[in-house]
Amino acid sequence: xxxxxxxxxxxxxEKIIKIRNxxxxxxxxxxxxxxxxxxxxxxxxxxxxxxxxxxLSKIAIKLQMSEAEIFTYxxxxxxxxxxxxxxxxxxxxxLRPGIKNQILSLIFGNExxxxxxx
Length: 118
Known about the structure:
This protein folds into two domains: about 10-70, 434 Repressor (Amino-terminal Domain) (Orthogonal Bundle); about 90-118, no CATH class. It has helices spanning about 10-20, 25-35, 40-45, 55-60, 65-70, 100-110, 110-115. The chain is mostly helical. The chain is about 55% helix and about 0% strand. The chain is built from seven helices and no strands. α6 crosses α7.
């Protein structure tokens, strides 16, 4: 997007506007909070100027959020750990007779079914 040419707002800018509105801040107050000149910030919100990575990082720092949290707002971003963590799931199903072993083999594999039935 070129400076001075309105090509619409980027989805990340839409998220930032949502954050600003949720915090009940005007554009002036928000631009002061994040340390960006009001005129430049207004152009970003209006779609006339690109949001630079530098400004995105400034915004994230001032909001005490990560860039990823801004991308996913209002949902919370959380990293999935691939260490030795286990995920516990409880699942209750009502199955017709004869289907139990088919479902269990899909979930646990055929070899585990013999262990479960013993």
